[in-house]
Design brief:
Helices cover 8% and strands 48% of the residues. By secondary structure, the chain is mainly beta.
């Protein structure tokens, strides 16, 4: 009995040590497109021929397992650090059903975080998407898809759902009729983990954009079309697919770069999450939308744009059918990441056997462009175009087929896409999925202070929602104006809603430090002096505002350990 108590005391002591290490580190990984578990599917292409592939990248050596119930498939692969591994899946994983529960969910697990892309490739009808890990998905969605081709009744607008847990109740209010569901009327389906459910509609002008999906457990949701023209009767059709972002991950500020080689512009759809949403393009109000409504427009082939709104929105960029301008191309569909959700490091794959022309569209703070690297080489200044009315620039970079790395000192946006003969694909390079849509305020502290150059000073930015609750896992940009502007950076909020940012001032003088999330900002002033530090401020690591919490936990654990030892 004494030995058992001693062992328990040792475990408690170890637990307290681990807890204190984690608390004092003050760090939190961003909620991003990297993850250790995914539940995804392959919404139907025009047929089940061609290739169904997964691209998996990792920043550390990873052991990844992929399993499917129907068709039966199971494999484990090793993904080397900094590399990309391609996995070919059985064609039968393609979901061709309508209103039928199947077991075609693809379960991906890894021992370390990985990024997953899915490529649905068929001759003249290809598209790809960025997969969202289980901890980035949610229970509430609006779907973005595209209109059924008006010329061919056999083609379908579609939406697809994959359950991640057993006994998941899903309520769907579709905007098109099909698969036993009626447009405008809510219906329900119950799914177990790995089960899929797809709705297809081939009626005239059928479009699942704006369909509302809510579940009692996390689900993965996809929107698109098995093959459609964009725009109208322009030829030719192509497969469209994207995994939807849950409502909490939507944003209010978006930057767009036109697709390379296209001459007649790109189609954009902008969808509202709330009624009364005002949409602005380059500072001009273009629409006021109700919840689930969308605005569609064509933005020119040479225009770089900023799209903003007063409420969270979802933005899709669509490559038009090749007949729009006669160049080698075809439709694809890619979601545009809000600039609040950019990351600063990506590993991606470009090209397929039938798509030889490939590009990267990059958006970056203009002051940061000298740090943007593609495959370790700085993107030349001549490649960048300033986005009017913003502090950002965009670039279109031609790349060869194969694996590419994109990195930067500050967060940047990335779109990967390519064109072949009447074919194309496009997908997000990655993004964060913090609940930026829930942010209501940001406050930086301390507001003022001073310290000698060569010493480190830290600031905390507290991020809260409308209820005053902390918002965890969102990126806060710390923009510095003054003699140390080169030290601008970013940090992610911890579970207390606090992002901690530390710099070591190198130059004398006064800096203005702005903490920014989208349209929310708060500022501080700080002076770097010569001599001893009169105002050291908070030490790096543990936020000062959390000292009482951590001290209380430490005292409780210490008391428990002492009590157990006395029993021995």
């Amino acid at each position: 009995m004494n030995n058992a108590i001693q062992n328990l005391a040792k475990r408690l002591l170890l637990l307290s040590a681990l807890l204190l290490v984690s608390l004092f580190s003050g760090s939190l990984f961003a909620q991003s497109s990297q993850g250790t578990e995914f539940w995804i599917g392959f919404p139907g292409n025009i047929s089940s021929s061609g290739l169904r592939q997964l691209y998996i990248t990792a920043e550390a050596n990873a052991e990844v397992t992929i399993s499917i119930t129907t068709p039966a498939f199971n494999t484990t692969v090793n993904v080397a650090s900094g590399s990309l591994t391609t996995i070919n899946l059985p064609n039968q994983v393609d979901i061709q059903s309508n209103g039928v529960v199947e077991n075609k969910g693809i379960h991906i697990t890894s021992d370390v975080p990985v990024t997953v892309y899915a490529m649905n490739q068929q001759n003249a009808t290809t598209d790809a998407y960025l997969a969202l890990p289980v901890d980035a998905i949610g229970t509430e969605y609006y779907v973005m898809a595209y209109t059924r081709d008006v010329a061919f009744s056999s083609l379908n607008s579609q939406m697809t759902i994959v359950a991640t847990e057993d006994n998941t109740s899903v309520t769907i209010t579709p905007t098109a009729s099909g698969g036993g569901f009626t447009a405008g009327s809510s219906g329900n389906v119950v799914l177990n983990a790995g089960q899929t459910f797809q709705l297809r509609s081939n009626t005239i002008n059928a479009d699942y954009t704006g369909s509302y999906v809510v579940a009692d457990k996390p689900i993965s949701v996809f929107g698109g079309n098995d093959c459609t023209n964009i725009s109208g009767n322009l030829r030719a059709c192509d497969h469209l697919v994207q995994q939807m972002i849950p409502l909490g991950g939507w944003g209010q500020s978006f930057l767009t770069v036109p697709l390379a080689t296209r001459l007649a512009g790109d189609v954009f759809r902008i969808m509202a999450q709330q009624s009364g949403t005002q949409v602005n393009i380059n500072g001009v109000n273009v629409a006021t939308l109700s919840a689930g409504q969308f605005y569609e427009t064509i933005l020119g082939s040479t225009t770089y744009n900023r799209i903003t709104s007063n409420n969270p929105i979802l933005v899709g960029q669509y490559s038009r059918s090749s007949e729009a301008d006669g160049v080698i191309s075809d439709p694809f569909f890619a979601l545009v990441p809000p600039d609040e959700q950019f990351l600063n490091n990506y590993i991606v794959s470009a090209g397929t056997p039938n798509i030889p022309i490939n590009f990267l569209n990059i958006t970056s703070p203009t002051a940061n462009i000298s740090t943007v690297l593609v495959d370790g080489v700085v993107v030349p200044e001549s490649a960048w175009t300033a986005i009017p009315g913003t502090t950002f620039s965009g670039a279109r970079i031609s790349v060869s087929a194969g694996v590419h790395s994109v990195s930067s000192a500050l967060p940047i946006g990335l779109l990967v896409y390519g064109f072949g003969s009447f074919d194309s694909y496009g997908y997000l390079g990655g993004q964060a999925f913090g609940a930026v849509a829930t942010v209501s305020s940001i406050a930086i502290s301390p507001k003022t202070g001073s310290a000698p150059v060569g010493t480190e000073h830290c600031w905390e930015a507290l991020v809260q929602d409308q209820f005053g609750d902390p918002v965890a896992g969102v990126r806060v940009d710390f923009n510095i104006t003054g003699p140390n502007s080169a030290l601008s950076g970013f940090a992610f909020t911890n579970s207390s809603g606090i992002a901690t940012f530390c710099i070591e001032g190198a130059n004398l003088g006064e800096d203005i430090i702005d903490a920014v999330i989208g349209s929310f900002t708060d500022g501080a002033q700080f002076t770097w002096t010569e001599g001893e530090d009169p105002d050291p401020g908070p030490e790096p690591g543990i936020p000062l505002s959390n000292w009482s919490i951590y001290l209380g936990i430490l005292l409780i654990l210490t008391f428990i350990i002492i009590r157990f030892r006395r029993l021995v």
